[in-house]
Specification:
It is built from 16 helices and 19 strands. By secondary structure, the chain is α/β, with parallel strands linked by helices. The structure holds adenosine-5'-triphosphate and magnesium ion (MG). Adenosine-5'-triphosphate (ATP) binds next to α1.
Amino acid sequence: MIILETRSLKYTYPDGTAAVQDLNIEIKKGKKVAFVGQNGSGKSTLFLLLNGTLKPAEGEVLFHGVPFKYDSKSLREIRKSIGIVFQNSDDQIFAPTVYQDVAFGPANLGYSKERVDACVHQALEQVGLYRLKDKPPHHLSGGQKKRVAIAGIMAMEPEVIILDEPLSNLDPVGADEIIDLLNEFNQLGSTIIISTHDVDLAYRWSDYVYIMSNSKLIGQGTPAEVFKEQELLKKAGLRQPTTLEIYHEIERRGLARGKNSPKTVPELVSTLKPLDLMWVDVPPGVREGDNLNLGVMYGVYATQSPYEAINATVLHIHSGGRAIVELKRKGIKAGGVLLYDTDKYSLDEVRQIIKEGEIVFVGAMGKKSKTLAEQDGIRLDVTSGVIDKSILMALCGKRCLILTAGGMIDHALKRTREYVDKSGIEFTVGVVNREGGCKWLEEMDTNPETFKV
Ligand SMILES: Nc1ncnc2c1ncn2[C@@H]1O[C@H](COP(=O)(O)OP(=O)(O)OP(=O)(O)O)[C@@H](O)[C@H]1O
Ligand SMILES: [Mg+2]
């Protein structure tokens, strides 16, 4: 279903700059969409047209198939449903305190005082700024202002959230948190539209990409379609995403299997052709024809690794304890990515799972889960890029636990299961503290090779 669309849209600034020309887009409900293009290509102007802040010179914008009207009542309705976070936070933030700024939107929607309070509280927690709620926004850092602006829009729970350069000014972990948050809103049904110069982000995050250049659309499609078009990227002044660039190098050297467009590091790793023969150091006593269990230690396969990752047969032993082995990938031992729903948090339970589930790697996603872990002294090995890092660990036969809640659970499950399905490498994936959770853990212990939730 198309939620937002434009037909022959044109906008010219009063000084005569044609900033958007003949623009036709159709944005489907529930999608994550990225607009990518050089400075001055018209992204911000388009976004201002998409929520009625600017009125087109020609053409129209339609929401749920109904053309925008520009009287103040219609515009209020549009802005209730289509929230925009401006590129420059100073254009957005104006109230005397952070709290009042975030409360402005929900209060304008006519919510009760209690509901406004609940929305503001939640939104500020989500962007990690609750402790600054009484500060004047103009005393905040650039990244903090950005988070306030994002919280202000999130608090209104709009159907469509438009964010103009949402990650500019944010530190890497803060940027990951905002992406997690956008994914969570998307899981709950919101359509998310962003502009970005970050081709890596557009490539790995979005469902659909539009490329803009010189006030026009010059390309569109799924990220895999758009980012393989070298000529298009050149014309738009963009570069290839890094994972794709590395993949093409691997492919050129004949080391890749199948035709792929890997988006994440784990996907990239799984495109590598298995090495059949390799050298390893073996302990004395190992003979030709022996079967070995190898694990990854400090990035290389080794017999003394505590984690069994792969079986190998010794073909030849060289002097000095070096051997040529033939790898048998089928023997990969299952690691696991376990999720813990912090909406049903109990510290004792988490401790028990970490101990009895032989968890060696713990991560948290979302502010709430991170705060809980911090408060209770749960050591976190990872707080950004958590899903990918856990998958990489699970591939080495380790068990990981991710503390998270809400829509991020489904997002993590989906991503991890997709990886298991695509790569053909099995490891266990599931939520440990949902119904039957502990039973699940026991079953996994008795049958780790094959059990899959
Ligand atoms: N208020 C304005 N008055 C006149 N021209 C403007 C105004 N705002 C933007 N422009 C011009 O319109 C064109 C599109 O600008 P816009 O801000 O939409 O680009 P953008 O793609 O968002 O760029 P960036 O990546 O730098 O944010 C540019 O040529 C710019 O100079
Ligand atoms: Mg812009």
